[in-house]
Design a protein that fits this description.
The complex is a heterodimer of chains A (288) and B (414). With 288 residues, chain A is mainly alpha-helical. Chain A has a single domain, classed as ABC transporter involved in vitamin B12 uptake, BtuC. Chain A contains twelve helices and two strands. In chain A, strands 1-2 form a two-stranded antiparallel sheet. In chain A, helix 1 packs antiparallel against helix 10 and helix 2 packs antiparallel against helix 3. In chain A, 52% of the residues are buried. The mean pLDDT of chain A is 86. Chain B has two domains: 220 residues, 3-Layer(aba) Sandwich (Rossmann fold); 128 residues, Rossmann fold. In chain B, helix 3 runs parallel beside helix 4 and helix 5 packs across helix 6. Chain B has 414 residues and is α/β, with parallel strands linked by helices. In chain B, strands 7, 8, 9, 10, 11, 12, 13, 14 and 15 form a nine-stranded mixed β-sheet that branches. Classes of the chains: A mainly alpha (288), B alpha/beta (414). The interface between A and B is large, with 50 and 45 residues.
Chain lengths: 288, 414
């Protein structure tokens, strides 16, 4: 029973971290059809922002929940203005440009902070379930992931900005004719996607080895989740995270971490074979 | 740091000017062959994933060469370093190795960090008959008369670490290791030394290098209830294990001993809570307080500032490697490759920062000290020293006295 609770918590943690690392990518890819290969580096920048500000005496919660998303959001806007803006509608070119950008960011961070592993201590401490111990940070991550998903629903469905953003993504020329500046909507959406990614990076900093190359460990999983989820940002990310997170964590627990990864990749391959448009290409169609 | 750069720049600019002014004299001397510098090759990653490990290694080569030059050089000739940065890229290793052997025609090469880089450049130096020193701890078993491997091997360090850790906690161990040849081979050695000392291994788990979530493993470890965790985890992603372990409140419940933790600078960059109490064994620790070790660290800090990365066994063995090669040249009276090899095989000993290092003739490895340490307050607290440890693992498979033409890396059967 205790063990089941702990394993359940692990599964929850796997799902929550998938939601966190892929939601920003889903916003940018799902809304704008930009494949951002520098996604992992945005995560890394968020983690560095948290580590550096915490080491300089800033409160860790403020660093994770405010500094990281704001900083990476600003980086996102800068990137959108200088690089992405000229590449809308050119899928392959954006991939190449963001790939180059990711190499540039890794190089820059290595040059400034060195190629060493950093970290901040995990806040909140642990708790006991029978004979087992686990940390309170995992449920906290799950809570934040849930709040983020709700936040996306609220913004897209119930705010004026959400309406304008959805309209611009569907028909930019019509939105433009109605007085919306698509350019600014694109910029804001990219910035928000980047900020969500930065938040994820900040939240993962206390439980990861923070190094310039850390992004590469997350980027593949984020892409698998977004592609597996399909067209709709929210239902897609949530359902794919639920599926892949459970498979990966249960696989790792029942066999070995090697097979946990293998099972995840096999499951993703099968899913794309059966549902080429992702989960939301078949189920929950037309949802957010 | 900027100070050093400026000084370095001024220094090299000054030397370049001096070189231009003095070039007729240099040309004349070169023609006579009396004082032309002896070239020493250095091939260590200065950038990329392994940059932090490689930087102190190159500084150590520079320090050793400066010391030798200050004492009058070798055979009346000064030493000059030819250094390349392979950027953590194996292809560049092969390319620069050929350049060192064929274009620069260096007398010796000190280089290679990972086993993969060593196996890329070792055949190059064999083919072009260039003496090669590999000064890094590794899994053991290389048998090649052209090469000297002066770092520690598992028989020198793991053999001390496992029984000591078991003595402190208990006989049931749980092994977690990186999923590539280093982790696989090291896990075998851990199993062997655990069983040799009457212990049992409850489970062995391997992790691909990009695993970041250790939750399932932490649960499995708690379910298995071992007395001790033996870790050969590698790289930044795997550092997450120590952090998630601490977050789960398991720190201090089950002790951890590692063959890899702290080889770069984890104790100083991670939080004190996460690294406290982790045990390790290497051929050298920067915290070693012997006079030779203190002098070495002081010289490095005086020359390059306090900001250089942690000085581990990698850097120390490299420093000793250059001095041992120099001893060999002095003894041989020439830089001729075979004569230097024969001189080195004569059992050269050198008292370095890590203690006495002796070249072992049959294996071309080093008989050297091993140290046990525990992380305390972000620093290694050295708790045991074991002088004159022989490379028994390699000795079991390699005898270059009997088979001087042997040339391969044995996988030591355990």
């Amino acid at each position: 029973m205790d063990l089941a609770a702990i394993v359940g918590l692990n599964v929850l943690s796997g799902i929550a971290s998938l939601v966190l690392i892929s939601l920003g990518l889903a916003i940018i890819f799902g809304m704008m059809k930009i494949i951002n290969l520098a996604h992992g580096e945005f995560l890394m920048l968020g983690a560095y922002a948290t580590v550096l500000s915490t080491n300089h005496g800033v409160n860790i919660w403020f660093a994770m929940l405010v500094i990281s998303p704001v900083f990476v959001g600003l980086v996102g806007i800068l990137v959108e203005r200088t690089l992405i803006r000229v590449l809308y509608g050119r899928l392959v070119d954006t991939m190449l440009a963001t790939w180059g950008l990711s190499l540039f960011i890794v190089g820059l961070v290595t040059m400034i902070f060195g190629n060493t592993i950093n970290g901040v201590p995990t806040p909140l401490g642990g708790f006991q379930v029978g004979a087992y111990r686990s940390d309170l940070y995992t449920p906290f991550l799950a809570l934040v992931a849930l709040l983020l998903l709700c936040g996306v629903v609220v913004v897209l469905r119930f705010t004026r900005f959400g309406l304008i953003a959805r309209a611009t993504m569907q028909k930019p020329d019509m939105a433009s004719a109605l007085g919306v500046d698509p350019d600014r909507v694109y910029m804001a959406t990219f910035g928000i996607g980047a900020a969500v990614t930065g938040l994820a990076g900040g939240l993962l900093a206390p439980v990861s080895g923070v190094a310039p190359t850390m992004g590469s460990a997350f980027v593949a999983k984020a892409f698998i989740t977004v592609v597996g989820g399909g067209a709709s940002i929210l239902a897609g990310t949530a359902s794919a995270s639920l599926l892949f997170g459970s498979i990966n964590q249960m696989g790792s627990y029942l066999t070995t971490p090697v097979f946990g990864e293998v099972i995840l990749l096999v499951a993703a391959t099968l899913l794309i074979r059966v549902l080429p448009e992702g989960i939301t290409g078949r189920f929950f169609r037309g949802s957010l | 740091m900027s100070d050093v750069t400026r000084r370095k720049f001024l220094g090299s600019a000054g030397m370049a000017t001096a070189g231009l002014v003095a070039s007729p004299a240099v040309l004349r001397l070169t023609a006579l062959g009396a004082e032309a510098p002896i070239l020493v090759g250095s091939l260590h990653d200065q950038s990329g994933a392994l940059g932090t490990s490689g930087q102190p290694m190159v500084l150590s080569v520079e320090l050793a060469v400066d010391e030798i030059n200050a004492a009058g050089g070798l055979l009346g000739r000064p030493l000059k370093i030819v250094s390349y940065d392979p950027q953590s890229n194996i292809q560049l290793y092969s390319q620069y190795a050929q350049q060192l052997a064929l274009k620069d025609k260096v007398a010796v090469v000190h280089g290679g960090i990972t086993s993969a880089s060593r196996e890329a450049i070792r055949p190059v130096f064999d083919r072009f008959k260039t003496l090669y020193f590999y000064n890094t701890l590794y899994e053991g078993g290389v048998c090649d008369r052209n090469e000297f491997c002066l770092g520690t091997t598992p028989a020198q360090t793991v053999e001390k670490l496992v029984p000591n850790a078991m003595g402190k906690s208990g006989k049931k161990a749980y092994i977690i290791a990186a999923d590539y040849n280093y982790g696989q081979i090291t896990a075998k050695w851990m199993t062997k030394y655990c069983q040799d000392n009457g212990g049992t291994v409850l489970a062995t788990e391997f992790f691909p290098l990009d695993v970041t979530n250790f939750g399932p493993t932490i649960s499995k470890i708690q379910a298995a209830k071992p007395d001790l965790i033996l870790s050969a985890l590698v790289g930044g992603n795997h550092t997450a294990f120590y952090r998630q372990w601490t977050a789960a409140g398991m720190k201090g419940q089950i002790p951890i001993a590692s063959t890899t933790f702290g080889l770069v600078n984890e104790p100083s960059t991670l939080d004190a809570k996460e690294s406290e109490g982790i045990m390790g064994a290497y051929g050298y620790f920067q915290e070693l307080t012997t006079p030779a070790s203190k002098a070495y660290i002081d010289k490095l800090h005086a020359k390059y500032g306090q900001g250089i990365p942690y000085v581990s066994e990698l850097a120390c063995a490299t420093y000793e490697g250059v001095h041992i090669w120099a001893e060999g040249v002095r003894k041989a009276g020439t830089i001729d490759r075979m004569k230097v090899i024969e001189a080195l095989e004569g059992g050269i000993s050198y008292d370095g920062p890590s203690g006495t290092v002796t070249v072992d003739k049959p294996t071309h490895h080093a008989i050297r000290s091993a140290y046990l340490a525990t992380v305390h307050d972000k620093l290694w607290d050295v708790t045991g020293s074991y002088p004159n440890q022989k490379p028994l693992d390699t000795a079991a498979v390699c005898d270059l006295v009997k088979n001087p033409n042997d040339n391969q890396q044995y996988v030591v059967k355990i």
